[in-house]
Fold:
Amino acid sequence: MTKSIELKQQYFFECLSQSVVDMDEKQAKKIAKMIINESMDCNKAIEIGLSGGMARVGTLYETGEYFIPDLLVCADVVQEAMTVLRTGLIQNPLSKGRVVIGTIFGDTHDLGKNIVILFLMSAGYEVLDLGKDVSARSFVDEAVKWKADIIAISTLMTTCMKNIKDVIDLLITENKRKQFRIIIGGKPVSFNFATIIGADGYAENAVQTVKLLDTIFSK
Structure:
């Protein structure tokens, strides 16, 4: 690739990233179509443009400049642009890892989980959403069936915290614990709780979840 083509491609990716930050779905789709028409690298467009844009959005959220409604709009922009870019992929985009996620048995709250899913997908992870009120048996069976790398468990209810450990205990009982990394999240849980029950990590929000998984997969 010549220097001029490389610079042009980088410019397009940066514009795509900015359209995500600006919450401009129309512009994002327009740029995505131009990237395809110019036969640019769609995998890199997703990685640098879309995932990079969402990383910037995450920073804005952490600094208090963006709020949850902004995150949802930005995630929608990413998904729309992703749909366009996928049509130009010669091969399936590289996946950072496979994540099975759900809200633990007894808890029917899922807004936070759904935001996490949007962020993970935007960051390049494959995600299988098991929904809410998910039993330990379902977590384990689906993770095995889908050949997941990560089992992500959430709860917003203090009374359901103990149910998270049931997933870990079941994995240990069936000699499957080493097959998966377990991460947890939700208002009542903490890093200390994750350590106590034997989980591999804790994330406070969607932004931190992506950072945690990026750290896990970089090792």
